[in-house]
């Protein structure tokens, strides 16, 4: 955005500048290799962790930053996912969506043991909510957890779990009570729990640098301390946890839009057709005007939401609506950028070609566009809660 932001601070500017330089120097040159490898090198986790970005909202005694900042969370996601391969953000991102329930609800012993190694990037954690039979309909998950002789026994399956092959710790939603949302609890599951196994998921259309897994729980045995938070109150914890995940995907989509815009503009300034640079054709100029307006609107909306969070609010409806705006805008911006590239857009290695293959995961993952609109409608009091 060319207009100054009333929400920019010297701290944010410094963070954005430093992190962008890191992404430019340490990530961008390796994108093709990591996409081909279907993973990022393990050292990348620790290198990103140096920026403190896995420690937002977590006490310093556990390796966290000791403060939270919604703007800097946004800056992080925008810049990392905007690098040109959003799968790299996903590859390290399993921990950002699973760390908060551990920090909030794990026993003191587990917090001391688990949080520092996850926050420092030495170990990975992942969030397992989705099942083969239930994704959007979280209240209907079927993985079960039963108490037996002072232990918990888990049975069931989770699928599409990002970071699932690397993670050593899993936050898992399971059914401990009756049907529906009041019968769900959260558990902290170590990769070495008896009865736990995992299998990698096969090919994907995008997010190639990241891995997803199916997790299997076959009479998986957990200590009584594995329960995270109150029994049968896991649904609300899952919903609260989704807020920052969704805001992160919204910021990520913004970063991807900016990359589409910048790459298309570079191209349109170079490429000549009918004796003029592409950008000088009125129809193409209009595309840039519309694309930049969408980018500016999304950025303004996200910053306003971050401001509200910093005031102590959690604007659930706005986060849901912003995610839909960002992913629908991303579709528009990426499509226009490809149109501007012409045939070159269709070739592997074009910067927008990869983003085109990554749009749908932003529009579906962490709560699809349909589900986000439904949630917003309920939160706005227009339909039953
Ligand atoms: C690459 C990748 C990574 C992922 N990582 C994780 C992870 O780390 N952890 C995790 O737990 N999950 C993860 N997921 C799962 C993801 O969050 C789900 O795919 C998503 O929530 C949608 O669930 P579903 O696929 O079961 O679709 P479904 O719930 O079966 O929905 C299918 C379609 O129907 C629509 N729909 C469903 N219900 C309604 C309704 N009531 N009204 C209108 N439309 C409706 C949906 O919007 C969707 O378009 C990942 C998925 C992918 C592809």
TrEMBL record:
It is an enzyme of class 1 (oxidoreductase). Residues 232-380 form the Acyl-CoA dehydrogenase/oxidase C-terminal domain. Its EC number is 1.3.99.-. It comes from the Bacteria. Keywords: FAD, Flavoprotein, Oxidoreductase. InterPro entries: Acyl-CoA_Oxase/DH_mid-dom (IPR006091), Acyl-CoA_Oxase/DH_mid-dom_sf (IPR046373), AcylCo_DH-like_C (IPR036250), AcylCo_DH/oxidase_C (IPR009075), AcylCoA_DH/ox_N (IPR013786), AcylCoA_DH/ox_N_sf (IPR037069), AcylCoA_DH/oxidase_NM_dom_sf (IPR009100). Its cofactor is FAD. GO terms for molecular function: acyl-CoA dehydrogenase activity; flavin adenine dinucleotide binding. Residues 126-220 form the Acyl-CoA oxidase/dehydrogenase middle domain. Residues 9-121 form the Acyl-CoA dehydrogenase/oxidase N-terminal domain. Belongs to the acyl-CoA dehydrogenase family. PANTHER family: ACYL-COA DEHYDROGENASE, ISOVALERYL-COA DEHYDROGENASE, MITOCHONDRIAL-RELATED. This is Acyl-CoA dehydrogenase. The gene is mmgC_1.
């Amino acid at each position: 955005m060319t207009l100054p932001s009333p929400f920019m601070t010297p701290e944010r500017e410094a963070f954005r500048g430093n992190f962008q330089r890191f992404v430019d120097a340490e990530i961008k040159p390796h994108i093709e290799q990591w996409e081909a490898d279907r993973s990022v090198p393990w050292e990348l986790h620790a290198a990103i962790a140096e920026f403190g970005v896995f420690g937002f909202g977590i006490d310093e005694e556990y390796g966290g930053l000791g403060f939270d900042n919604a703007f800097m969370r946004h800056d992080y996601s925008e810049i990392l996912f905007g690098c040109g391969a959003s799968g790299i953000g996903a590859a390290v991102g399993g921990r950002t969506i699973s760390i908060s329930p551990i920090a909030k609800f794990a026993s003191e012993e587990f917090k001391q043991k688990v949080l520092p190694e996850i926050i420092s990037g030495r170990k990975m954690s992942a969030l397992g909510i989705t099942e083969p039979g239930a994704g959007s309909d979280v209240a209907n998950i079927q993985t079960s957890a039963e108490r037996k002789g002072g232990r918990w026994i888990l049975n069931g399956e989770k699928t599409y779990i990002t970071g699932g092959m690397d993670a050593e710790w899993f936050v898992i939603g399971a059914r401990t009570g009756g049907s529906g949302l009041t019968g769900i609890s959260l558990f902290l599951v170590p990769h070495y729990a008896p009865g736990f196994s995992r299998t990698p998921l096969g090919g994907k259309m995008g997010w190639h640098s990241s891995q997803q897994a199916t997790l299997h729980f076959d009479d998986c045995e957990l200590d009584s301390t594995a329960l995270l938070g109150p029994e049968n109150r896991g649904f609300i914890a899952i919903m609260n946890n989704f807020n920052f995940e969704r805001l992160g995907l919204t910021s990520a989509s913004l970063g991807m839009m900016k990359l589409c815009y910048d790459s298309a503009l570079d191209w349109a300034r170079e490429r000549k057709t009918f004796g003029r640079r592409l950008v000088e054709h009125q129809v193409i100029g209009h595309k840039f005007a519309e694309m930049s307006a969408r980018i500016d609107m999304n950025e303004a909306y996200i910053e306003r939401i971050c401001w509200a969070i910093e005031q102590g609010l959690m604007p659930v409806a706005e986060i849901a609506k912003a995610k839909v705006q960002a992913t629908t805008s991303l579709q528009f911006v990426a499509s226009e950028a490809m149109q501007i590239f012409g045939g070159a857009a269709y070739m592997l290695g074009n910067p927008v070609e990869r983003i085109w293959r990554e749009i749908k995961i932003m529009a579906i993952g962490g709560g699809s566009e349909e589900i986000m609109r439904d949630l917003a409608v309920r939160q706005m009091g227009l339909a039953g809660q």
